[in-house]
TrEMBL record:
It comes from Capsulimonas corticalis. Keywords: Metal-binding, NAD, Oxidoreductase, Zinc. This is Oxidoreductase. Its cofactor is Zn(2+). Gene3D superfamilies: Medium-chain alcohol dehydrogenases, catalytic domain, NAD(P)-binding Rossmann-like Domain. It comes from the Bacteria. InterPro entries: ADH-like_C, ADH-like_N, ADH_Zn_CS, ER, GroES-like_sf, NAD(P)-bd_dom_sf. Belongs to the zinc-containing alcohol dehydrogenase family. SMART domains: PKS_ER. One of its GO terms (molecular function) is zinc ion binding. The keyword Acetylation does not apply. PROSITE patterns: ADH_ZINC (PS00059).
Length: 367
């Protein structure tokens, strides 16, 4: 039985998002059909729009930070049934790549994807699903192992945030470069991901959590989520200020959630001896950075710096998503406070504009 729905679609490069009627085939073997309840609006969707599809074929179904209810399951699906509440993971380990085979699924090279089963109703064109999800839609089809069951008491309009922004930031702090108790930490860029790094640093009992941004509003948010110190990078040299706050020697961990050369370089220059810089922010195509390797004080070599890149918090969704839900339910992870606006599917373009203006921490589309 085919399903019908409505979705926010990028029909062509350079166009705004348009609402379209869609049809969905029954989920195939190992797949599930999810009726969406809520979807966060993430910067990556904006990148897909602004970078003309980021390599995906048009038309493109946006959205990858969603939660919903299982409507139907395909052949062989035993872990889920209709009515189950789920959060959709965009990186569910494949169980077949070299990393998965050596028992390290957090470093999986690929991710499980569903067969393309969603079409634009007016002409039958198959939709590409952003990050194998496609959550700006009343319904979507995903791989069953990418649909992570939530506890019944978990509100889905908050649970959706776990799927991208929150797992990326908290996971960077707990998985990619695990913070030790008593560490000094700096976070460059205090949007949804940076705020989540701050929450992860607090969960890991960091000593100083230093938030760096250009926006006073974001620095205010950072304090509310656990930053012990804030540095406005427009007022003087943020590297000198961070090093001074961090006992005069620099930070053990610097997380960079902007993706531009300046903050990438600043985060590395803020490290204490043998510290680790973690790069989360999405860079522009062909972007280069200048690294000082040889300076006797702060050069990468003499400072014995470790540089890491974090995708999706190096998550193992089946383990990490229920954990984050539990931490929320226990009052240790703030999600309600991250939602600064709610909206509807027909107002996605406005949500993107608000994001570009820096006015929101997270907008959530409610279906
Ligand atoms: Zn995202
Ligand atoms: Zn794998």
């Amino acid at each position: 039985m085919p399903y019908e729905g409505r979705a926010a679609v990028l029909n062509e490069a350079g166009r705004d998002v348009e609402l379209e009627d869609i049809t969905l085939e029954d989920p195939g073997p190992g797949e599930v059909l999810v009726k969406m309840v809520a979807s966060g609006v993430c910067h990556t969707d904006l990148h897909v729009k602004n970078m003309n599809g980021m390599g995906m074929a048009f038309p493109i179904l946006l959205g990858h930070e969603g939660a919903g209810i299982i409507e139907a399951v395909g052949e062989g699906v035993t872990n889920l049934k209709p009515g189950d509440p789920v959060v959709i993971a965009y990186r569910a380990p494949c169980e077949q790549c070299p990393a998965c085979l050596r028992g390290d699924p957090r470093r999986c090279w690929v991710a499980l994807r569903p067969k393309q089963r969603i079409r634009r109703k007016r002409d039958g064109a198959l939709l590409s699903q952003v990050l194998r999800c496609g959550t700006f839609s009343t319904h979507t089809v995903v791989h069953s192992k990418a649909a992570i069951k939530m506890p019944a008491e978990m509100p889905l309009d908050k649970a959706c945030l776990i799927a991208c922004g929150v797992i990326t930031g908290v996971g960077a702090a707990l998985n990619t470069a695990p913070i030790f108790a008593g560490a000094n930490v700096a976070v460059f860029g205090c949007g949804g991901v940076g705020i989540s790094v701050i929450q992860g640093a607090k969960l890991a009992h960091a000593k100083r959590i230093i938030a760096v941004d250009l926006s006073e509003r974001k620095l205010e948010w950072a304090k509310n989520f656990g930053a012990t110190d804030v540095v406005n990078a427009s007022q003087g040299d943020p590297v000198a200020r961070v090093r001074e706050i961090a006992d005069g020697v620099g930070v053990d961990f610097a997380y960079e959630a902007v993706g531009i050369p300046k903050t990438i370089e600043q985060s590395i220059a803020s490290l204490a001896y043998a510290g680790t810089a973690v790069h989360i922010g999405l860079p522009e195509d062909e972007q280069h950075v200048n690294l000082n390797f040889g300076n006797m004080d702060t050069g990468v070599y003499w400072n014995k710096a470790t540089i890491k890149v974090c995708h999706c918090g190096d998550a193992l969704p089946s383990n990490d998503f229920p954990l984050l839900a539990q931490l929320y339910l226990q009052g240790q992870l703030k999600l309600d406070e991250m939602v600064t606006a709610t909206t509807t599917l027909d107002k996605v373009n406005e949500a993107f504009h608000a994001m570009e203006g820096g006015d929101v921490l997270r907008s959530v589309i409610l279906f």
